[in-house]
Write a structure and sequence with these properties.
By secondary structure, the protein is of the alpha/beta class. It contains seven helices and six strands. The longest helix has 24 residues. It starts with 5 loop residues before the first strand and ends in a 12-residue tail after the last helix. Bound molecules: farnesyl diphosphate. The site of farnesyl diphosphate (FPP) has 19 residues, from helix 1, helix 2, strand 2 and helix 3.
Length: 236
């Protein structure tokens, strides 16, 4: 039976959740924050090693400015307010994405969250913020190209392992299970390299409604899947 070590979630459906109730989109994001808190706690209790969550994509800047500003304020406030609970739960928070492009407030609070939890030994919570999978691959390519230009590395020495070690979180295992609430059948530029062999689980449940039992259902479905990594059916 395969057990998932690394679960990644595209936290989608906040806007629709709010719309269905005649509320502003931000009410959906505020509820999405609560769902994230629930699922981080549940992931730790279940014993997952890594939970990656997509908080803000590099394409989300195209949303109305008022929504972008409110999301940035939410990230800043939530990371500060949730820090004591992350500590209490022994969660090691990390942040992935082009943080230097974020406004100073949320950038600093995300960095503080990572810095202040870095010695924790429980669940690793990888928060993707201003993150794009293609941008991550470009950043890794630039890092390696710079080392080649400096004469430190030969182009032919670049292989899959070295490339993987040049990504934002070089020490994390690959994603086993990618969960997408909200029903869309898309990957949306999330962890493109890391999901190469991930199982994908899509549920119509909107992210603000997502409960521990939905996570458990996804993990149970994962355990029933036959992961082949390119091999023939049944081949060991
Ligand atoms: C996508 O739903 C969701 C987001 C762009 C924001 C996700 C952010 C949170 C859940 C808050 C997390 C908090 C921290 C501290 C990281 P959508 O607006 O695209 O929904 P829709 O598809 O229904 O419109």
């Amino acid at each position: 039976m395969a057990v998932a070590r690394h679960v990644a979630i595209i936290m989608d459906g906040n806007g629709r959740w709010a719309q269905e109730r005649g509320l502003p989109r931000m009410a959906g994001h505020a509820e999405g924050r609560k769902a994230m808190k629930r699922i981080v706690r549940a992931s730790g209790e279940i014993g997952l090693e890594v939970l990656s969550v997509y908080a803000f994509s590099s394409e989300n800047w195209a949303r109305p400015q008022a929504e972008v500003d409110a999301l940035m304020a939410l990230f800043e406030q939530a990371t500060r307010e949730e820090l004591p609970e992350l500590q209490e739960q022994n969660v090691q928070a990390r942040v992935s994405g082009r943080l230097h492009e974020l406004p100073p407030g949320p950038r600093q609070s995300l960095l503080d969250m990572a810095e202040q939890t870095k010695h924790n030994t429980g669940l690793i919570l990888n928060v993707a913020c201003n993150y794009g999978g293609q941008a991550e691959i470009v950043d890794a390519a630039q890092k390696l190209a710079r080392r080649c230009a400096d004469g430190e590395l030969k182009p032919e020495e670049i292989d899959r392992d070295l490339f993987a070690r040049s990504l934002y979180q070089p020490d994390l295992p690959p994603v086993d299970l990618l969960i997408r609430p909200g029903g869309e059948m898309r990957v949306s530029n999330f962890l493109l390299w890391e999901i190469a062999y991930a199982e994908i689980y899509v549920t119509p449940v909107l992210w603000p409604d997502f409960q521990r039992e939905h996570l458990e259902a996804a993990l149970a479905a994962f355990e029933k899947r036959e992961r082949r990594f390119g091999k023939a059916p049944g081949q060991t």
